[in-house]
Amino acid sequence: MPPTDILRGLALARLCLPLLPLAGCSVMAPAPVWELAKAGAGLASMAIAAAPSRASQTHRQFDGALDAVCIRFDPDTPVADIVPALQAELRRHRVESRVYDRAMPAETCATWLQYAAQIDWDQPPFHGEFKPFLRHAALSLRSARGEVLSTSQYLLDGGFSQGKWTSTREKLAPVVTALLTGIDGSEPAFRPETATSQRP
Description:
Blueprint: H1 3-16, H2 20-23, H3 32-49, E1 56-60, E2 68-72, H4 82-92, E3 96-100, E4 111-122, E5 131-143, E6 148-155, H5 168-181, H6 192-197
Parallel strand pairs: 2-3, 2-4
Antiparallel strand pairs: 1-6, 4-5, 5-6
């Protein structure tokens, strides 16, 4: 909106405020329809960008439940918060985890969680700077002998890129669930209010 229009609106507001109890004076922006359209488009794009994520291509080849896993740290994965996100989601499923940067003997770690991830860059709604976002993540559970027990992945939807700007944990929440249960989309993406309610 041009500065002159803003000043004109402020002047009208100053004139109308004393008269509001008497005559019902109203102040309209010079282009209210255009401003509403821009705001609506911005909110719609933000809602699409923050849509819930889901797991895909899940394969589970073991029975029963796990109570602990070891996470193999990958220094080449360009997602700084992926390990904390994985550990938080594992805890939500009551699975303890430890992180190692090298292989450990079978008596120390019977089950390993391995991950790989890719990022991309774009501008979030209402921001001028480019920021990274998680575009793809693949998780796998393996035995100490290297046998694949379960796999699942997150892949950013095409088209409007639903869920692009949700957090790493929100994106990985359904994938961890699928990895442990073998069911795609068995739970909605993580929401802070649900995490606290599920803690023992």
